[in-house]
Amino acid sequence: MLKKLGAFFKEPPIAEPIQDQEKVDSMYKHWRLRMFVGCFIGYTIFYLCKKNIAVALPGIMDEFHYSATELGLLGSSLYLTYGIGKFVNGVLADGSDVRKFFPTALLMTAIANILFALAPNFVSVLGLSTKMAAMVLLWTLAFLWGVSGWFQSAGFPAVAKSLTYWYSNSERGTKWAAWSCSHQTGTFLSFIIAGFIAAHFGWRAAFLVPGTLAAITAISLFFVLRDRPQSMGLPDVEVYRNEPVKEKSADEKKEEDEMSYVQIFKKYVLCNKTIWLLAIAYIFVYIIRFGAEDWMIMYLKNAKGIGLQDATGMIASLPLVGIVGTMCAGIISDKLFKGKRAPVNLIYLVGVVLTIIALKFNTNPSLNYVIIGLLGAFTYGPQMMIGGLCAVESSSKKVASAASGFTGTFGYIGAFLSATGTGFLVDKLGKNGVQNWNGAIYFWLASGIICFIICAILAIDEYKKDSKKA
């Protein structure tokens, strides 16, 4: 069975090179755009099936009377499986056919979402007591959301491989930033669409509709996507664009060509100091990111006294303005800093710290739109670069998916800590059943400061390396 699955997903071989330059130009222009659009739409749909949990949590809490800590179990289950899966699937994606790997992951995510919505119906037929039924349902939902997280984790490594092979270094920052906007687009659409559906048709519909849409999209992507350019007879993208990769000596090139995948992975990922620092920094980026995405609605509702519909509208500014922040991060690092990512990360992290402070002390409800939007802009820039673009560029193209998967795993350790830590602090610091969100805000604030310190170390290392080259 496993052997058959391996054969099905196996990366297609390198095809006979196409000699007709006009055909190469035509195919590259067509397929670069097609791969980008396919990856963008596919990953947007992944987020429709991921961020719907945020707008569903209040409904689930009201119906089954779960505490914030218990609801944190749902987010934690996804982040745990997503984190582990991102590394495992990153390794698998390096040797897999993107055309099959990506759509299959999306299809399985769709099925998990649909089963999540139907879970209360299945538990209700067991005839359990109210208390026992609520407990069984909680763990069933946690299991299904964890399964969804595992398959969702296969999406990013496949995209990382595609962007690395189809776009060269001089344009990758901008293109990666443009694709990364699928995170924010999916999050924004999820808050708006799932929020509307949940408000009018109940929280179950917020999983059924995205799940159905994801299944349709997954089938379509099988016909849209392809694997590496070389599998279609096209040259390496650096050759096509007449843009040599970072210079290596003849001995280094020969050594890498003769190395096995495991040896390359060990050298460029496991024994790479920069990758480890990026991975640790990513933990704190994700504490902030998922603290905002998953808990902001409840924070606005319970700590600021804002209604659900208004809170949903406010949090929609997080990904919407985040798109601008992400694009600016990529363009500024490409154009202004000539491919250097560290300075942009530092600037953005200062913005993160300042906006969290502003969120804490703001008393004007209308300003929440601006503050939350700025938080999204400053958070999504480092989120796009630290664990994705920086990780890929600090390793080898041959382990691009594994490198991004490795840092992504650490990111979801942060997401796990965000889910459990935020819920725990809100409950434990509260008194007489009243939630206290001060601890959560300070938790996010401390994460921003620690991440800044780590990125400062990376910036210093980068400066030293550049000085030696000069």
Topology of helices and strands:
Elements lengths: L1 H8 L11 H28 L3 H13 L3 H27 L3 H27 L5 H23 L2 H12 L2 H33 L3 H20 L12 H4 L9 H9 L2 H10 L2 H30 L5 H29 L5 H20 L5 H27 L6 H29 L9 H32 L1
- The total beta strand count reads 0
Rg for CA atoms: 22 Å
Fill in the CATH topology: Growth Hormone, Chain: A
Sheet having the most strands: none
Content of β-strand: under 5%
- The computed structural class is mainly alpha
Unreliable parts: none
Give the SSE string: HHHHHHHHHHHHHHHHHH
The figure for the number of domains is 1
Question: What CATH architecture would you give?
Answer: Up-down Bundle
Look at the structure and give the mean pLDDT.
Answer: 86
Q: What would CATH call the class?
A: Mainly Alpha
Give the number of helices. 18
Helix content: over 70%
Report how far apart the termini are.
55 Å
- So what's the overall shape? globular
CATH homologous superfamily classification: MFS general substrate transporter like domains
